[in-house]
Amino acid sequence: MSIDRDTFEKTSEDELEELSVPDQVLGFLAANDDRAFKAREIASQIGLDEGAVSTALSRLKDRDLVEHKATYWAITDDTERLDGYSGYERATALFNQRLGTEDKESWREHAPEEPHPSVEDEQ
């Protein structure tokens, strides 16, 4: 997955290298959005195992982020869907890495017992 210039400049090289396989696959396809590739070609270009790339492609297809025809794969042309994926997934991964995953029980312990006044107004 591509990243914005600000992230590129402020993120360390180690953090950038830790992109997930699906993010790397999606990033490659986004950079080559005018072409379709076989899984082994993608794997070769980004230096990953073909099996890992194939698994990532299947998962990305389940999320409607890539298209598959015969043995070829291409990124979707649904930019709204892509924007939603990159923003949410990337942010969640970065926050979980830096702050740890959320503990629902901790949230419940500190949640107010009464609803916010704006919620009551809507009822």
UniProtKB/TrEMBL annotation:
Pfam families per UniProt: MarR_2 (PF12802)
Biased composition range(s): Basic and acidic residues: 100-123
Residue span(s) of domain HTH marR-type: 24-69
Region Disordered: start-end pairs: 99-123
Matches recorded under InterPro entries: HTH_MarR-typ, WH-like_DNA-bd_sf, WH_DNA-bd_sf
One Gene Ontology molecular-function label: DNA-binding transcription factor activity
Chain coiled-coil ranges: none
Superkingdom per UniProt: Archaea
Name of the molecule in the record: MarR family transcriptional regulator
UniProt organism field: Halorubrum halodurans
